[in-house]
Amino acid sequence: MSLVSNLALVDSHAHLAEDRFDDDREEVLRRAREAGVEALLIIGYNVDSSARAAAIAQQSAVSVRSDSPVLYATAGFAPHNVNEADEDGLAAVAALLDEPRVVAVGEIGLDYHYDMPRAQQRTLFDRQAGLASARGMPVVVHSREAEDDVVAILQKHVEGDGLAGVIHCFTESSRMAERVVELGFYVSFAGILTFRSAGDLRETAARVPLERTLIETDSPYLAPVPNRGKRNEPAFVAEVAHALAEIHGRSPEDVAAITASNARELFSLRG
C-alpha cells in the first residue's frame, strides 16, 4: 500500500525526541508532511524525554517550515519510569507543562506486564491525572494488562474533575474500549492494527466509533505493515488510517479527517 499524499493526518503519539531520530529528524518530518501529516505530538515519558520533546516542538515554532508538520509535546512519567518519579522529578514535569506547545500530561498510566511496583505505579498515575485535572489538560494514557485499575483511576478524575484524554496504542479488551469511551475518552490505534495476528484488535477497532478514535505511530516502535521490522516514523501513520478505513468501510480521507479533527479538539491544537 502506498502512502497517499492527499490525506490530512495527525500523528497523536510519536517519540520523535529519541536519539534514533537525531541524525535525520528533519528528513523524517519532511517525509511525514509529504504523507499528509499536518501535526504530531512528541511524547515525553520522564523528565529528560519531556524536556527534549518540548524543546523540539518550541524550536519548530520559531523556525516554521512548510515542509514539516506542526509539532506539539507532552510531559509526564510513564509507568516504566516510576522509579525516577521523585518529588524533584514531578516538580520538573509540572514546570514543563507551562512551556509553550506542551499540550498534555503523558504518557502516564499502568503497565502490569513487566515486574514494576504496582502500588507505586497507581499512586504515580493518580497523582499525574490529578495534575492534569488541576491544569485543565488532557492525559495520554498507557495501559497494559491493567484494565480495571486504569479505568478506576480515570473514572475518579473524570467524575470529579472532568478529566479528558486518550488511551494510546490500544491493545486491551473491547470491554475496556467501551468503558473508556463511556467516560468520554478517545481510543488510539497504532500500527499493530495492521499485523496479521491482530484480528481481535481489529474487531475492537470496529466497535469504537470513529468520532472517539485517534491514530498514531508510537514511533520509532511498532512499524505497520508493509514496513514492519523497520524503524517506525510519523509518515507511516497513513497506513493506520488505511487499515481503519477498511475496518469501518469508509474512505481513508474520511478516517484521516475525522481522527485529525478529534486530535485537534482533544489537545486544542492550533495548527
Can you walk me through this structure?
- The chain has one domain: TIM Barrel (Alpha-Beta Barrel).
- It is globular and about 45 Å long.
- The chain has helices at residues 25-34, 47-62, 87-96, 118-135, 147-161, 174-182, 199-207, 237-248, 252-267; strands at 9-14, 37-42, 70-75, 102-111, 139-144, 165-167, 186-189, 213-215.
- It contains nine helices and eight strands.
- The chain has an eight-stranded parallel beta sheet with strand order 1-2-3-4-5-6-7-8.
- Strand 6, helix 6 (174-182) and strand 7 (186-189) form a beta-alpha-beta unit.
- By secondary structure, the chain is α/β, with parallel strands linked by helices.
- The mean pLDDT is 96.
What is the number of domains? Answer: 1
Strand composition percent:
15-25%
Task: Report the CATH topology name.
Answer: TIM Barrel
DSSP E strands, number: 8
Measured as a percent range, the helix fraction is 40-55%
Order of helices and strands: EHEHEHEHEHEHEHEHH
Structural class: alpha/beta
* Assembly state of the chains shown: single chain
Summarize the model shown.
By secondary structure, the chain is an alpha/beta fold. Helices cover 42% and strands 16% of the residues. It has a single domain (9-267), classed as Metal-dependent hydrolases (TIM Barrel).
Which key terms come to mind for this protein?
single chain; 271 residues; alpha/beta; TIM Barrel; 8-stranded parallel beta sheet; globular
